[in-house]
Amino acid sequence: MDNKTVYKLTYGLFVLTSRLGEKDSGCIINTAGQVTSEPNRISITVNQSNFTHDLIRESKQFNISIISEAASFSLFQHFGFQSGRTVDKFADYSDCKRSENGLYYITTGTNGYISACVEQEIDLGSHTMFIAAVKDMEVLSDIPSASYAYYQSHIKPKPQQSAATGKTVWRCTVCGYTYDGEDLPADFICPLCKHPASDFEKVTL
After folding, report:
1. What is the 3-state secondary structure (H, E, C) of the chain?
2. Do residues 130 and 56 make contact, with C-beta atoms less than 8 angstroms apart?
3. What is the spatial distance between Cα 163 and Cα 129, in angstroms, rounded to a whole number?
4. CA angle 93, 98, 102 (to 5 degrees)
5. What is the pLDDT of residues 35-45, one digit of tens each?
6. What are the pLDDT digits (tens) for 111-147?
7. What global pTM score does this model have?
Protein backbone atom coordinates (compact mmCIF):
# COMPACT_ATOMS: atom_id res chain seq x y z
CA MET A 1 0.00 0.00 0.00
CA ASP A 2 1.35 3.42 -0.95
CA ASN A 3 0.64 5.77 1.98
CA LYS A 4 1.42 8.78 -0.19
CA THR A 5 -1.81 8.23 -2.15
CA VAL A 6 -3.65 10.35 0.42
CA TYR A 7 -1.49 13.31 -0.68
CA LYS A 8 -3.52 13.31 -3.92
CA LEU A 9 -6.64 14.31 -1.99
CA THR A 10 -7.43 18.02 -2.17
CA TYR A 11 -6.91 19.91 1.06
CA GLY A 12 -7.22 23.56 1.92
CA LEU A 13 -5.31 25.21 4.75
CA PHE A 14 -6.84 27.20 7.58
CA VAL A 15 -6.01 29.04 10.78
CA LEU A 16 -8.47 27.75 13.34
CA THR A 17 -9.09 30.08 16.28
CA SER A 18 -11.14 29.94 19.46
CA ARG A 19 -11.45 31.65 22.84
CA LEU A 20 -12.39 30.58 26.35
CA GLY A 21 -12.67 33.24 29.03
CA GLU A 22 -9.75 35.59 28.40
CA LYS A 23 -7.62 32.99 26.61
CA ASP A 24 -7.26 33.06 22.80
CA SER A 25 -5.45 30.52 20.72
CA GLY A 26 -5.16 29.22 17.17
CA CYS A 27 -3.63 26.42 15.12
CA ILE A 28 -3.23 25.30 11.52
CA ILE A 29 -5.59 22.65 10.17
CA ASN A 30 -6.16 21.20 6.71
CA THR A 31 -9.57 19.61 7.20
CA ALA A 32 -12.50 21.99 6.93
CA GLY A 33 -15.42 21.96 4.54
CA GLN A 34 -19.08 22.64 4.03
CA VAL A 35 -21.28 19.64 4.77
CA THR A 36 -24.74 21.12 4.18
CA SER A 37 -25.92 24.33 2.56
CA GLU A 38 -29.42 24.52 4.07
CA PRO A 39 -28.94 24.91 6.95
CA ASN A 40 -25.38 26.05 6.37
CA ARG A 41 -23.04 23.73 8.28
CA ILE A 42 -19.32 23.10 8.13
CA SER A 43 -17.07 20.45 9.62
CA ILE A 44 -13.54 20.71 10.99
CA THR A 45 -11.26 17.97 12.27
CA VAL A 46 -8.73 18.86 14.97
CA ASN A 47 -5.95 16.93 16.65
CA GLN A 48 -6.94 16.29 20.27
CA SER A 49 -3.44 17.27 21.45
CA ASN A 50 -3.93 20.85 20.22
CA PHE A 51 -4.81 23.46 22.83
CA THR A 52 -7.28 25.06 20.39
CA HIS A 53 -9.16 21.74 20.35
CA ASP A 54 -9.79 22.08 24.08
CA LEU A 55 -10.98 25.68 23.75
CA ILE A 56 -13.48 24.67 21.06
CA ARG A 57 -14.75 21.73 23.09
CA GLU A 58 -15.46 24.01 26.05
CA SER A 59 -16.63 27.18 24.28
CA LYS A 60 -18.47 25.52 21.34
CA GLN A 61 -17.29 28.37 19.07
CA PHE A 62 -14.57 28.81 16.49
CA ASN A 63 -13.46 30.82 13.47
CA ILE A 64 -11.61 29.46 10.46
CA SER A 65 -9.51 31.89 8.44
CA ILE A 66 -8.97 30.56 4.92
CA ILE A 67 -5.29 30.75 3.99
CA SER A 68 -4.56 32.21 0.55
CA GLU A 69 -1.65 31.87 -1.85
CA ALA A 70 -0.38 35.21 -0.52
CA ALA A 71 0.46 33.65 2.86
CA SER A 72 4.07 33.54 4.02
CA PHE A 73 5.74 30.64 5.79
CA SER A 74 5.83 32.76 8.96
CA LEU A 75 2.05 32.33 9.30
CA PHE A 76 2.51 28.55 9.47
CA GLN A 77 5.42 28.88 11.87
CA HIS A 78 3.44 31.16 14.17
CA PHE A 79 0.27 29.09 14.38
CA GLY A 80 1.60 25.63 13.57
CA PHE A 81 5.00 25.23 15.19
CA GLN A 82 4.31 26.30 18.77
CA SER A 83 1.72 25.33 21.34
CA GLY A 84 -0.93 27.63 22.76
CA ARG A 85 -0.46 25.82 26.09
CA THR A 86 2.89 27.56 26.55
CA VAL A 87 2.75 30.56 24.17
CA ASP A 88 0.20 33.35 23.79
CA LYS A 89 0.00 33.33 20.00
CA PHE A 90 -1.89 36.62 19.89
CA ALA A 91 0.46 38.58 22.14
CA ASP A 92 2.01 41.28 19.91
CA TYR A 93 0.32 39.72 16.84
CA SER A 94 -1.34 42.49 14.84
CA ASP A 95 -2.56 40.78 11.65
CA CYS A 96 -5.94 39.93 13.13
CA LYS A 97 -9.31 41.35 14.13
CA ARG A 98 -12.19 40.17 16.27
CA SER A 99 -15.38 39.09 14.55
CA GLU A 100 -18.90 39.53 15.92
CA ASN A 101 -18.55 36.41 18.08
CA GLY A 102 -15.53 37.92 19.88
CA LEU A 103 -13.00 35.53 18.34
CA TYR A 104 -9.96 36.51 16.31
CA TYR A 105 -9.67 35.95 12.58
CA ILE A 106 -6.50 36.45 10.55
CA THR A 107 -6.34 39.40 8.15
CA THR A 108 -3.02 38.84 6.33
CA GLY A 109 -2.40 35.86 4.05
CA THR A 110 -6.08 34.89 4.11
CA ASN A 111 -9.02 35.47 1.76
CA GLY A 112 -11.98 34.98 4.07
CA TYR A 113 -13.20 33.77 7.43
CA ILE A 114 -16.15 31.79 8.76
CA SER A 115 -17.57 31.95 12.28
CA ALA A 116 -19.36 28.85 13.52
CA CYS A 117 -21.02 27.34 16.57
CA VAL A 118 -20.57 23.63 17.37
CA GLU A 119 -23.67 21.44 17.18
CA GLN A 120 -22.08 17.99 17.28
CA GLU A 121 -18.71 16.36 17.89
CA ILE A 122 -17.40 12.96 16.88
CA ASP A 123 -14.45 11.31 18.63
CA LEU A 124 -12.11 9.88 15.97
CA GLY A 125 -9.37 8.71 18.31
CA SER A 126 -6.47 11.06 17.64
CA HIS A 127 -8.80 13.79 16.32
CA THR A 128 -12.26 15.20 16.96
CA MET A 129 -14.63 16.17 14.18
CA PHE A 130 -16.80 19.16 15.01
CA ILE A 131 -19.99 19.79 13.03
CA ALA A 132 -20.98 23.43 13.35
CA ALA A 133 -23.60 25.93 12.20
CA VAL A 134 -22.27 28.91 10.27
CA LYS A 135 -23.09 32.16 12.06
CA ASP A 136 -21.13 34.69 10.00
CA MET A 137 -18.61 34.84 7.15
CA GLU A 138 -16.82 37.40 5.04
CA VAL A 139 -14.64 37.47 1.91
CA LEU A 140 -11.39 39.34 2.58
CA SER A 141 -9.66 39.12 -0.81
CA ASP A 142 -9.88 37.52 -4.27
CA ILE A 143 -6.48 35.82 -4.02
CA PRO A 144 -6.95 32.05 -4.54
CA SER A 145 -7.01 29.74 -1.55
CA ALA A 146 -3.78 27.87 -0.85
CA SER A 147 -4.07 24.13 -1.26
CA TYR A 148 -1.87 21.75 0.68
CA ALA A 149 -0.03 21.00 -2.57
CA TYR A 150 0.55 24.73 -3.16
CA TYR A 151 1.96 25.05 0.35
CA GLN A 152 4.39 22.19 -0.29
CA SER A 153 5.53 23.60 -3.64
CA HIS A 154 5.52 27.37 -3.11
CA ILE A 155 5.35 28.35 0.57
CA LYS A 156 7.29 25.80 2.60
CA PRO A 157 11.06 26.41 2.30
CA LYS A 158 13.01 23.70 0.55
CA PRO A 159 15.18 21.71 2.98
CA GLN A 160 18.84 22.62 3.07
CA GLN A 161 21.21 19.89 1.99
CA SER A 162 23.78 18.81 4.53
CA ALA A 163 27.46 18.62 3.66
CA ALA A 164 27.37 15.01 4.78
CA THR A 165 26.41 12.40 2.20
CA GLY A 166 24.93 8.98 2.65
CA LYS A 167 23.27 10.00 5.93
CA THR A 168 19.73 8.72 6.48
CA VAL A 169 17.12 10.95 8.10
CA TRP A 170 13.36 11.03 8.39
CA ARG A 171 11.90 14.33 7.21
CA CYS A 172 8.46 15.66 8.19
CA THR A 173 6.52 16.32 4.99
CA VAL A 174 4.53 19.05 6.75
CA CYS A 175 7.17 21.30 8.33
CA GLY A 176 10.53 19.87 7.21
CA TYR A 177 11.79 18.80 10.66
CA THR A 178 14.36 16.00 10.39
CA TYR A 179 14.89 13.01 12.68
CA ASP A 180 18.30 11.35 12.47
CA GLY A 181 18.40 7.58 12.22
CA GLU A 182 17.60 4.56 10.10
CA ASP A 183 14.37 3.81 11.94
CA LEU A 184 11.66 6.21 13.05
CA PRO A 185 9.61 5.10 16.10
CA ALA A 186 6.02 4.31 15.12
CA ASP A 187 4.69 6.56 17.88
CA PHE A 188 6.98 9.49 17.03
CA ILE A 189 5.32 12.93 17.00
CA CYS A 190 6.98 15.86 15.21
CA PRO A 191 8.13 18.28 17.94
CA LEU A 192 7.42 21.27 15.69
CA CYS A 193 4.09 20.67 13.97
CA LYS A 194 2.80 17.72 16.06
CA HIS A 195 2.16 15.48 13.05
CA PRO A 196 2.63 11.70 13.48
CA ALA A 197 5.25 9.32 12.10
CA SER A 198 3.04 8.58 9.09
CA ASP A 199 3.77 12.12 7.82
CA PHE A 200 7.55 11.49 7.71
CA GLU A 201 9.48 10.25 4.70
CA LYS A 202 12.86 8.51 4.69
CA VAL A 203 15.57 10.57 2.95
CA THR A 204 19.21 9.84 2.21
CA LEU A 205 21.28 13.03 2.12
Report:
1. CCHHHHHHCCCECEEEEEEECCEEEEEEECCEEEEEECCEEEEEEEECCCHHHHHHHHHCEEEEEEEECCCCHHHHHHHHCCCCCCCCCCCCCCCEEECCCCCEEECCCEEEEEEEEEEEEEECCCEEEEEEEEEEEEECCCCCECEHHHHHHHHCCCCCCCCCCCCEEEEECCCCCEEECCCCCCCCECCCCCCEHHHEEEEEC
2. yes
3. 43
4. 125
5. 999 999 999 99
6. 999 999 999 999 999 899 999 999 999 999 999 999 9
7. 0.84
